[in-house]
Amino acid sequence: MIVKDEEDVLARCLDSIQETYDELIVVDTGSTDKTVEIAKTYTDKVYTFEWVYDFSAARNYAFSLSECDFLMWLDADDVLDETNRQALKALKNSLTADVDMVMMPYVAAFDEEGKPTLSYERERIVRRTANFSWVGAVHEVIVPRGNVVHSDVSVFHKKIRPAEAGRNLKIFQKMLADGKTPDERQKFYYARELFDNGLYDAAVTAYSEFLNGDGWVENKICACRDLSACFCKKNMPKQALAALFKSFELDSPRAETCCDLGAFYMQHAMYGRAVFWYKLALNLKPDLTTGAFVFADCYGYIPAIQLCVCYDRLGQLQKAQKYNELAGRFKPNNASYLHNKQYFDKILKNKGNEQ
Question: Domain Glycosyltransferase 2-like, which positions (predicted)?
């Protein structure tokens, strides 16, 4: 684990993984709060590493300090619930010497009830003697190889405060200023940082260059969605629509893209077209083993609640009510579903009084 100024979350993380490890290594990269003090109450293996604007360098240093057969990484704002803590203990005891890497779900966003809304697989455990290395100064990764095992043990990423504004973009800018050439994955994330920082013209250029390269197809599909969002910010609807359709040249439709298309047509009051894309989204299933970002609500709640709105705007109230009830099966306590339910109950009551 590498840390910096994590006094508000570190104990929560380390408490959640008690009895799952043989060795706990914490590498501090320049904390000015009580992070180091807290870490030392859990382990005597607390080290310092001079920050060099490179997350991979820090993580590789942390890996180099261990002599265990298998290495697992966590961020300070990660946690395991009790179910996954026990499952991790069982997984640890089942690992054999021929396993090189274990991929595990990373749950990164939650709805108001704490249910996962964004998850993707990450390389979580590696065999030390396989000599894996982290690559990438920011949005770092270990490239999978060898005997890769997929586990359903989930790690929950629960931020309580945003990252330092512009931090990642500054790292990319320093890397480029130093004459370093980003790989295809880094090009994708550089474009994302430009977009997240409101630099839409630069983001359009960066995404377009990435899409013309040899990047991973899942990143390219995300890039099409992000590029469309850039064009929407620039009030360029034709280009926004074209970017979404471009993703279909890469692979079969994803529900996330279909929901984007539904939202586009709703924004332009083309409710019949929006219905088509939201219905398609409802019929698709996520693949949780590709490592792609999966927004769970796009495969259920979002298309259902939006179909309710579309059919209401089209004057087809029975269909609208049907899809609102479907949305309620996904999220029975959701405010939008409950508001719509009251709306339809009132309409039905008025119709009954008229009769």
Answer: 1-132
Residue 354 pLDDT: 60
**Per-residue pLDDT reduced to its tens digit, 264-296:** 999 999 999 999 999 999 999 998 888 899 999
CB-CB contact of 27 with 3 (8 Å)? yes
Ranges in the chain, pLDDT < 50 = 355
**Which domains occur in the chain, in start order?**
2-157 (3.90.550.10), 165-251 (1.25.40.10), 254-355 (1.25.40.10)
Listed in sequence order, the residues at least 6 apart from 3 whose beta carbon sits closer than 8 Å to its beta carbon are 10, 26, 27, 28, 29, 31, 35, 39, 76
pTM of the full structure: 0.92
Q: Write down the residue that tokens 């993984």 correspond to.
A: 17
Which residue, 236, 74, 267, is CA-closest to 158? 74
Please, how many CA atoms are within 13 Å of residue 211, restricted to the half-sphere of its CB? 23
Contact between 167 and 152 under an 8 Å Cβ cutoff? The reply is no
Gap between the Cα atoms of 57 and 62, Å rounded? 9
Let me know: does 102 contact 151? Beta carbons within 8 Å. Answer: yes
Query: What is the CB neighbour count within 10 angstroms for residue 75?
Result: 17
- φ, ψ (nearest 5 deg) of residue 118: -140, 125
